[in-house]
Amino acid sequence: MDTGAEVTQLGRLHYWNNTEKTNAFEAPCNMINGSAGELFHPRRQRDYVEFYSTDICRSLRVPYKEEMSMYGLDGYRFQADEMMFAAPETNPDNWCYCNGECPPAGLLNETLCRFGVPAFVSFPHMLYADPAVLDQTVGQEPNETLHNFNIDLEPVGRHFPNIGYQSEVFSFAEVGYNHTLSK
Fold it and tell me: What is the pLDDT confidence band of residue 54, given thresholds at 50, 70 and 90?
C-alpha cells in the first residue's frame, strides 16, 4: 500500500495476499485496484472512488453522486448504481466477471471467490436486479435509499462522515425431482 510519498497515490493497494490479481475472475477483472477501503488520498476529485473488497474478490469503482454536508463537514457522496453489477449487455466492462456464464443483472457470481461454493452477491433486497430474478424470490422490496452503497468523503482531509455498505450473499441450489433419498 502506498504510504503517501506521492500524495495522489496515498492508500493505493498494490498487492493482496502477495499477488496483484485474484483467481476469482478473468483479466482484467482480476486486478487489484484502488485502496483497501479505509484510506483515500486527499484532494479528491468528483469522479469516483475505487477500492478492493476482499469479501467479494473484486475492485469496486463507485461514481460521484453529489455534494453533501454532515456533522459540519462538506464533502462528496459517491454512490453505487445499477452499472456495478449490470449484465455485460448493459455494462460491457462487466464481461470478465461472468466466470463462464453471466448471471442476470444485479448479481455477481462469487463461486470462485467462495472456493467453488455456488454463491452470488447483490445489493440488499436485490436492488438493481433483473425483474425476472425478483419474481423468483419472496420478500424482496428494493429501495434505493435504504439498500444502496455510498461513501461520503471530505475531499481535503479524507474524513468519512458516513459510509453505508451492505450486500447479500445467496447460495445457488438446484432442485432435483428424480432423486431417491432412501430405499
Answer: confident
